[in-house]
Amino acid sequence: MSEARRFTEDEVQRYARHIILPNVGGAGQRKLLDASVLVIGAGGLGSPIALYLAAAGVGKIGVVDFDAVDVSNLQRQILHTNADVGRSKVESALEHLRAINPTIEVVGHDQLLFSTNVFEVMEPYDVVVDGTDNFPVRYLVNDATQFLGKPLVYGSIYQFEGQATVFMPGKETPCYRCLFPTPPPPGTVPSCAEGGVFGVLPGVIGSIQATEAIKLITGEGDTLEGRLLLYDALDMSFQEVKIRWDADCPVCGKEPTITELIDYEQFCGVPARPE
Amino acid sequence: MPVQVKLPTILRKHAGGEPKVSAEGATLRDVLDDLETKYPGITKNVRSEDGGLHRFINVYLNDEDVRYLGSLETEVGEGDTVSILPAVAGGSPG
């Protein structure tokens, strides 16, 4: 980092509650302003993630999505409003992020991620936050962050249940494939648009992901690295299980068998998406 | 000895919607067998055809992945909780 520039008057006021907060302070706020985060998906998880990161003053936020806002999204995707129905999610997201914080840079990536473009999209960012809704992109994002050496904040939801963790690049640290080496065969586990989702659930999990992204940037506190946090909204219970580095992991194990990106076929009943 | 088994949402339909059930056994294998007897079909997607554990579903004894304990031979005891955790892809189902 180059010599720290001083906060502007607006920044001092805007981030006052962070600047006076122990474990963030001026130094932490400076790191946030100098940081860049890529948010993958501008939907249920991506909404609180992007909103909180923008409000917190993360200097540059990239948002990836290819979809348009549908009225059925509004039950949980709080980044978009009724007036945005039919608009591109990225366009709507950027507008609302700018409305919350016009002093940061927001960048739209209105596209699907494939092996051919994911490196280029991720490259400029310090931290990647995964808010996707399908296995092919989850595996692509995991593998790409491992290959690029970028931290990944993972979150996933199903009906009333959610999971979150942090995957760090580097030696003998777990990645998503240490947890689940390959995508499940179609039809064996829930995915995508099956079975509905409790509207507040992504708010809880996405907010946890935003928390972890901020901690990765400021370097304060303990992240969820090595721990998978499980949340059940019906029981209102949190549980933690350990995630260990798997020496046999196909991506980050001792003898990796996956050394390049894979485009898995779309499945789980979701039609193939346009390229 | 009874252990608690925490079920993910997708398996609850086999157990009348219950998020948590009790099962008997000295090892994880016994517990899964007992579950299958009580709730037929519940372990179909947990165990593979060859009798091992599927890699897209993880099973934990308390907070530890059973693969790092003894897989199906992992000993269980009273007061333990077995959690079954499938890979979940959801984020923002459209």
Report what the structure shows.
The complex is a heterodimer of chains A (275) and B (94). Chain A is of the alpha/beta class and 275 residues long. Chain A is 31% helix and 17% strand. In chain A, strands 3-2-1-4-5-6-7-8 form an eight-stranded mixed β-sheet, sandwiched between helices. In chain A, strand 4, helix 7 and strand 5 form a beta-alpha-beta unit. Chain B is α+β, with helices and mostly antiparallel strands. Chain B has a single domain, classed as Roll (Ubiquitin-like (UB roll)), CATH 3.10.20.30. Chain B contains two helices and five strands. Chain B has a five-stranded mixed β-sheet with strand order 2-1-5-3-4, with helices on one face. Chain B is globular, with a radius of gyration of 13 Å. The N and C termini of chain B lie far apart (44 Å). Chains A and B meet through strand 5, strand 7 and strand 8 of A and strand 3, strand 4 and strand 5 of B.
